[in-house]
Amino acid sequence: MDFVIQNNVLCKYKGHDGAVVIPEGVTKIGSYAFHNCRALQSVTIQANACKIGELAFQNSHHHVLIAPHIPISGFPDINKPAVCAGFAKLYCDQFPLSEEIRAGYLAYIRDQRKFLYDKAMEYLPLLQLMAAEKMILPEDFEELFQDALQKGGSERTALLLEYRHKCLGPAD
């Protein structure tokens, strides 16, 4: 079994899958549960899991947390970029979300967009959400665009060029 669960708390994930779904019955993800899970790409959190330990995903890089029922305020700050990426996937897939949760995530992403630009360069749906919601400011555009060029992201570069054309006007 890939999960160590005690008293409905997921204490440790020992698997090597890239995409993980938290088992039914888990109500909390303990601190360090996914510590050093380098292959981890996405974690889907079921509706019954509502508490997440502060360092549950420490040293698990490039992951996305998908939790459509948990408001952004329910996550430790360290996990918020991954949760915003998970929300962006749901947003782009037009997954039905409660208006309260949707509004909370959009407000957080808008307020923290500069902090989230790196995650948006790593995870295309987050950049797509930022563009769709017109969150990219003119003064941030050039640095973001150069970052996309340097990282070789042709999809990101094309998206940003289209955004500039539609939302920011012609380039100088």
Characterization of this structure:
The chain is α/β, with parallel strands linked by helices and 172 residues long. The chain is built from six helices and seven strands, in the order βββββββαααααα. The strands form two sheets. It has a four-stranded mixed beta sheet, with no helix packed on it. It has a three-stranded parallel beta sheet with strand order 3-5-7. Helix 1 packs across helix 4 (124-132) and helix 5 (138-150) packs antiparallel against helix 6 (154-168). The longest helix has 15 residues, at 154-168. It is elongated and about 60 Å long. The termini are far apart.
Main beta-sheet strand count, sense and barrel state? 4 strands, mixed
Count of DSSP strands: 7
Helix/strand order, N-terminal first? EEEEEEEHHHHHH
Structural Rg = 17 Å
Short description:
This protein has 172 residues and is α/β, with parallel strands linked by helices. 42% of the residues lie in helices and 13% in strands. The protein is elongated and about 60 Å long.
Keyphrases for this structure?
172 residues, four-stranded mixed β-sheet, three-stranded parallel β-sheet, 6 helices, elongated
Ordered list of secondary-structure elements with their pairings:
Layout: E1 3-6, E2 9-13, E3 19-21, E4 28-29, E5 42-44, E6 51-52, E7 64-66, H1 80-92, H2 99-111, H3 113-122, H4 124-132, H5 138-150, H6 154-168
Parallel strand pairs: 2-4, 3-5, 4-6, 5-7
Antiparallel strand pairs: 1-2
